[in-house]
Specification:
Blueprint (H helix, E strand, L loop, with lengths): L2 E4 L1 H14 L4 E11 L2 E7 L2 E2 L3 H6 L1 H14 L7 E9 L9 H12 L8 E8 L5 E8 L5 E8 L4
Parallel strand pairs: 1-3, 1-8, 5-6
Antiparallel strand pairs: 2-3, 2-4, 2-5, 6-7, 7-8
The structure holds zinc ion (ZN).
Length: about 160
């Protein structure tokens, strides 16, 4: 079981992206810090908008640039700071991953060029009260996946 913490600044980034995108999907890449056994904190979230999830995955140029900056800022300490996964919004339906979402994440985690031991998919939406609703799943290279625990660290 993997636990993902969302610090207040990342929560603000996601909320702002959701409000800007409105009824359109938005998404991006999550960079994380390894905090302890099975425990990760999101340290950076890129924001791409105006398309479907599959197009965010393909639109890697912006993401790669942010990743390089992130690695530089964290002194290339890959054991501690690394690619965590992907996030995107479901503006008009539940935050559960779709069949397409599951498949896209399994493609990423099985991709030897990514070389990940696991990848996380965070799905978010705005609740009626403009709060963040979210789910997180973790995907493994053997093709299995599991619901992960999400912890929101701060109140806005
Ligand atoms: Zn989705």
């Amino acid at each position: 079981m993997i636990t993902i913490s969302i610090p207040p600044d990342i929560e603000r980034t996601l909320l702002k992206a959701l409000k800007t995108a409105g009824s359109k999907e938005c998404g991006g890449v999550l960079m994380g810090e390894h905090m302890g056994p099975g425990q990760f904190a999101v340290r950076h979230a890129t924001v791409q908008g105006g398309g479907r999830f599959s197009s965010f995955v393909r639109d890697t140029q912006t993401a790669l640039r942010s990743l390089r900056t992130f690695f530089r800022q964290t002194d290339h300490d890959y054991a501690r700071f690394n690619y965590l996964g992907e996030w995107h919004s479901h503006p008009s339906f539940s935050v559960q991953p779709s069949t397409t979402d599951h498949q896209a994440m399994l493609d990423i985690v099985k991709d030897v060029r990514v070389g990940a031991n696991f990848v996380v998919l965070l799905i978010v939406k705005l609740s009626n009260r403009d709060a963040l609703e979210a789910s997180a799943h973790t995907y493994l290279p053997d093709g299995s996946f599991a619901l992960s625990t999400l912890i929101f660290q701060g109140t806005l």
